[in-house]
UniProtKB/TrEMBL annotation:
Keyword tags: Elongation factor, Protein biosynthesis
Cross-referenced Pfam families: EpmC
Top-level taxon of origin: Bacteria
InterPro entries: EpmC (IPR007411)
Protein name: Elongation factor P hydroxylase
Molecular functions (GO terms): translation elongation factor activity
Organism: Microbulbifer pacificus
């Protein structure tokens, strides 16, 4: 499964014309390395071990990041590890709505179940109902208004590779699925 996700991403984006970016698993932590940081001729989206959800989530972050952010290590974003305070968790949920909405679309395109990630297990804070609702609303907006060209290309390529229906149809997504 993960190897196919990587192959689809690399087919879409690894060439110089395709943004010269590769998806690479096997890492202890996810990270984005622009070519200027990794000493290679390509940018690298790194995901945790061989987890398909991590590959899709990190790809979603890459799709959300604009051209300037894709020149910065880890897109120049802050990240507070597990054990965030309630206030930090609220901020996390605000910045994670769009990536997690895209991840849901990519998961659907791959035939996988999507799980909302609060990414804060040590603090015992799961995803709030508002967070889940905001992710669902963002997916509905993406289906109605469209996604950026990178996300569109990847979603359709995944759907083709995994023989799934069009992942950008709003009726495929129900708030109740998020638990």
């Amino acid at each position: 499964m993960t190897e196919r996700i990587v192959a689809v991403f690399d087919h879409c984006f690894s060439s110089p014309a395709g943004l010269n970016t590769r998806l690479v698993g096997g890492h202890a932590e996810p990270y984005y390395r622009p070519a200027s940081e990794n000493g290679a001729h390509w940018h690298q989206v790194e995901f945790t071990r061989d987890y398909p959800a991590s590959a899709l989530h990190e790809t979603a972050h890459w799709c959300v990041a604009g051209a300037e952010r894709r020149e910065l290590p880890d897109y120049g974003y802050w990240y507070a590890p597990d054990g965030r305070s309630a206030a930090q968790q609220v901020e996390f949920e605000v910045v994670e709505v769009k990536p997690q909405a895209l991840e849901w679309i990519f998961a659907r395109a791959s035939g996988l179940k999507f799980r909302v990630s609060a990414d804060n297990l040590d603090a015992g804070l799961g995803p709030s109902d508002a967070f889940k609702r905001n992710i669902w609303r963002q997916v509905q907006r993406y289906c109605r208004e469209g996604v950026n060209p990178r996300a569109y290309r990847f979603a359709l390529a995944l759907a083709s590779a995994f023989a799934q229906p069009d992942p950008l149809l709003a009726e495929h997504y129900r708030l109740e699925e998020l638990g």
